[in-house]
Amino acid sequence: AMLRLRLLTWDVKDTLLRLRRPVGESYAAEARAHGVRVQPEALGQSFREAYGAQSRRFPNYGRGRGLSSQQWWVDVVKQTFRLSGVHEDGVLTLMAENLYHDFCSARNWEVLPGAGETLSRCCQRGFRMGVVSNFDNRLENVLSQCNLRHHFEFVLTSEDVGFAKPDRRIFEKALRLGGVPPQQAAHVGDDYARDYRAARAVGMHGFLLRAAGQGKEPGVPPEHILPTLSHLLALIEK
């Protein structure tokens, strides 16, 4: 039976967009521009550590804790470099501000294969479309720069809403904005817990983007698995 869907919501990172290169490489290039040599691999490891610690201490970009998301990220970048042995305050501040702005642009993000075409075809078929992403408030700009923003009626970020996936309240807000009951909506994303299971928990349909060889998730029927985004319409319209 064809699903009676009216609203499609979309995760962004690693679903529609991905980083052009590993974070460590971007950070190392910024450091080189200031005459600082640091290995990309070391910076990648330091970034994961700094990002993890900051996320535990100030969840959801410090929302409700008196931090702007820009300050949250600047602190992560500075700590990343400190963990890799760079301690000069002036250059840390400069690099952190530059990197914060760099990750706002299409310089660091690329559209995943099939994403633009799939979004266009979904719009042509008359689906209402929105974004539900654990992203900071740079997302509107990132989507515009990558020429995807026009596909969506709304863009919900965890920073704006105040709740991060898998919290049901971010999905409930999307359903209110879309004006549809959950059984007429589906969420598309690459994360089993935050995207697929969380959407199913509010009664929405879910599609899990799974590259070949990524392994099977428990309890996801094969008709909910997308090997690529281009498979989506065929699954919806079966």
From TrEMBL:
CDD domains: HAD_dREG-2_like. It holds the Pfam family Hydrolase. GO terms for cellular component: nucleus. It comes from the Eukaryota. InterPro entries: HAD-like_hydrolase_domain (IPR051828), HAD-like_sf (IPR036412), HAD-SF_hydro_IA (IPR006439), HAD-SF_hydro_IA_REG-2-like (IPR011949), HAD-SF_hydro_IA_REG-2-like_cap (IPR044924), HAD_sf (IPR023214). Belongs to the HAD-like hydrolase superfamily. NCBIfam families: DREG-2, HAD-SF-IA-v1, HAD-SF-IA-v3. This is Haloacid dehalogenase-like hydrolase domain-containing protein 3. The lineage of its organism: Eukaryota, Metazoa, Chordata, Craniata, Vertebrata.
